[in-house]
Amino acid sequence: MANNIRTRRKEVSVPTPFEQARDEMFQQVIRCGVPQSTPEHQEEWFTETMAYLGDRYHELSKEELAELRTLGLRFSQPPKSRIESEPATAATAA
Questions:
Q1: 8 A C-beta contact, residue 34 and residue 45
Q2: Quick one: 52 exposed, middle or buried, by C-beta within 10 A (0-12, 13-18, 19+)?
Q3: How far apart are the C-alpha atoms of 89 and 67, rounded to whole Å?
């Protein structure tokens, strides 16, 4: 029985082009300081980055590029603070 455990191989999943592009975009968002930039600069940065990702990952459809942009914009937003959500929780508990 011990040999069966040792000889089993895990299947390695290869990331899809969408997953690769998403991960690359997230890394660049952090590296370039996009969350700290103004909304105008963010818009410009994402326009240029989506053009680059479209060229680099030609397998991606326009819908996937739009989804990447949406994910990137959400990722670039500051986290919501707990203070904002506490009054809603208090009102529900009351």
A1: yes
A2: middle
A3: 31
Please give the Cα distance from 69 to 50 (Å, whole number).
7
List the one residue out of 84, 81, 93, 76 whose CA is nearest residue 68: 76
* pTM confidence score: 0.70
First to last CA, the chain: 58
Please give the pLDDT value at position 8: 72
Compute the 3-state secondary structure of the chain and give helix, strand, coil in percent, each to the nearest 5.
75, 0, 25
Higher pLDDT, 85 or 21: 21
Q: Where do the structural domains in the chain lie, given as residue ranges?
A: 16-29+47-75
Round to whole Å and give the CA distance between 28 and 22.
Answer: 10
